[in-house]
Amino acid sequence: MNEKKDNDVTLPLTTQLNNPQILNSKVHKNINEYEFKKYKKRWVMLSLFCFYCALSTYQWVEYSIIANIVTRYYSVSALAIDCTSMTYMFYYIFLIIPGSYFSERIGLRWTNILGSFLVCFGSWIKIFSLNPDGFVITFIGQSFLAVSQIVILTVPGRLAAHWFPSTQLSTATSFGIFGNQLGVAFGFYFTPIIVKNHESIDEIGHDLSTLFWSMAILTTLGFIAVLIFFQSEPRLPPSQTRALQKAKHIENNDSIIKPLKRLFKNKSFMILCNSYGLGIGVLNAVGTLLNQIVLSHFKNAEEDAGRMGLGLILAGMIGSVTFGFILDKTQKFKETTVTVYSLTLLGQIFFAVALWVESKWMVYLAAIFLGFFLSGYLALGYEMCAEYTYPEAESISTGILNIANNIYGIILVIISGELMEIYGDIAVHICLCTSLFFGLIMTILTKDEQRRQDAKNSVQNN
User: Fold this and answer.
1) What residue intervals traverse the membrane (predicted)?
2) What is the pLDDT of residues 217-247, one digit of tens each?
3) What is the CATH number of the domain that holds 47?
4) Which of 109, 185, 358, 434 is most open to solvent, judged by the fewest CB atoms within 10 Å of its CB?
5) pLDDT by residue (tens digit) across 341-365?
6) Residue 297: which residues within 8 A CB-CB, separation 6 or more?
């Protein structure tokens, strides 16, 4: 077997690898008979996804990071503003399983077209909510954006498997998560700069208009770019594991019921769903309540809260890429995950202490430390999911994985919001640290399974 260099020279046997009958009869029996290829355009596909994904997740924290301002403008409660964030979790729980199955059937290209369209459509609806009585309309727009996450969150691992060689799978998945986190980071940073806490409601409305129109134009450009340029997968598979996975899918041709049964019987995957769910649930709670937590210690600190959120997410983006690189080089999946989870718990404790002593520079430092591990853990979860569930379709396995973190996210946001209202933010930190502690215990107890790596090694040995 010869792996071609990173260029787009046409190779033989193209039709063989795209013919289901040949894949079924030959690739599954002897994968080494076929040629594999890395395409430069794989980076274009990844960039397109990251762009429109960032525009979606930007709007996840669009209201919560300026909660005190938006509650004044729309005359609604803090819980109503928290619900704009929780929509991203709520719809996902109920729609992800049929959505994943539908996504698997329509292919990667149409999955991304649908995702980018929903982001664009939801952003335009918000244009019509620019008056103090328009909260219902803005919530409808937010709901379309939330539904876009049903297809977006299943893409990173799937895109990596379709386009990237086995030596770059973890790195590619990390960059896919990178786009998700980049949007949240920009949302934290730019929204408080664009929308100021003016005395006049009309001036707040003018700032919101600037924000909404900017999002509508950018998401339209993203949708057009995806529609024109995005492709489902290359003519030749990028790796042995992708060719074998493709052959097995053709051979099995399962309905959604059979993969679900296999996944729910997979003990390591079930434990991962809970440990990952608790970890990312804490991230969702911190992101949603950050404005309220910071303002409880520092007066008129809306922009500080945004910058802290920016530092948290940017550090997480660096963490995602770093951990993806470490996994590609070492293949030490469980050791890396346990280490990162332990340091995440330590970071949450550090963040709580920094707020308690009310040292602003220490809070900034703690947010960066926490973000590097907590937000960086996103990519690790996707990689562990791929290892535990191979050769199942990534869209279904990651869909179930994200159901868990959205359920835990909603629960933790609601509980933390109530604790914040009654007891203050210290009770919130105790709740979040306890959640991370239980998640760490489950991570330690999980078996060190590497099914995808074992399949690759088996093919190479054969």
Assistant:
1) 43-61, 73-98, 110-129, 135-157, 169-190, 210-230, 269-290, 310-327, 339-357, 363-380, 400-420, 426-446
2) 999 999 999 999 988 777 776 666 666 666 6
3) 1.20.1250.20
4) 358
5) 999 999 999 999 999 999 999 999 9
6) 355, 358, 363, 425
